[in-house]
Amino acid sequence: MATLFNKRNLVTILAVTIFLFLIFFYFWLDNRGRSFEKSFFALDTLVTVRIYDLFSEAKNEKDVTQVINFLKRFEKTVNYFDPESELSRLNDAISRGDALSGYPVSETLEKLLILSLEMSEMSGGKFDFTVGRLITIWDFAHGGRIPAQEEIKEALRHTSYKKVFVSNGKVFAPPGVSIDLGAIAKGYAIDVAGSLLRKKGHRDFLINSVSSTLVNGSKNGENFQVGIENPRGQGLIAVIRTRSGETVSTTGDYQKFFEVDGKRYHHVLDPVTGYPAGGLASVTVVSKRSAAETDALSTAIFVMGEKEGLQFARKNRLKVIMITPEKEIYIYPEGDWVKIVK
């Protein structure tokens, strides 16, 4: 009798297991190809979160709302142009001389500044977060202007990441230094946003802030694809096939610029010359590094130019796409990870 009872139990358990599997499989088929997507404006750009997990609409909405709330708070920390942001208060303190003996900052700003120092050092100063005075005199926020040579010379006198030191929650810097985190903050923000989604149980999602993208998992079992804008035309010029955990960042001379006598002056400033970096129209970096690091490195390589940039990419095992103003395209390494579409 005991044997018969055990066999009946086994059959029942097996039947229930198969039934539950069929229910799950039905819902998987029903939801495959669907996604939860939300776009919103933050960090001076359009941010899109796209989730492919099998959670309820209500949970997806709640989780993405938490991401939005974080990004709004983060913007209040790093916005160079907001006089009430923590970064602006830090810059004001530096100008008063209050940072000579150390000025206290939040844990978030401290982490971002330490990472900025690391990226500045890694790139040999091609990425430099102390370009605030240059950003101000070029005034791209209000359409742009060509500053006088003396203005640029004075701004360069205070431009060097080596003037900044961060330790134990305090920033040390001499008066005259002005910090701008625009070339790394978006990447840092989507790193944290991605971490928030993972903590909520999401495994398949994409976060895009136009110039920076983070992918996690897959799109219904397939690689995510990220398009690269044509810097001198409409639509896309290339499509990248990403792997889970990769981040993508693009720096281009078409994002913020003005023209005078047919010459383009863009917002990617060379911290050595004080003028817009020349030679390239667009640089896209794909890496397994954090989105913040990839964000900073796309700017650094843009400033380096084609030859130095390719050498840097090889040395640091970065995937890179460089596009010149004449639409010449340089890709490293060659492979099926990128497809040119026009």
Walk me through this protein's architecture.
There is one protein chain. The chain has a domain at 38-55 and 202-340: ApbE-like domains (T-fold, Roll), CATH 3.10.520.10. The chain has an eight-stranded antiparallel sheet with strand order 1-2-6-7-10-13-14-15. It has a three-stranded antiparallel sheet with strand order 3-5-4, with helices on one face. Strands 8-9-16 form a three-stranded antiparallel sheet, with no helix packed on it. The protein has nine helices and 16 strands. Mean pLDDT is 90; it is low at 1-5 and 15-32. Helix content is 39%, strand content 22%. The protein has 342 residues and is α+β, with helices and mostly antiparallel strands. A hairpin with a 5-residue loop joins strand 14 (319-323) and strand 15 (329-332).
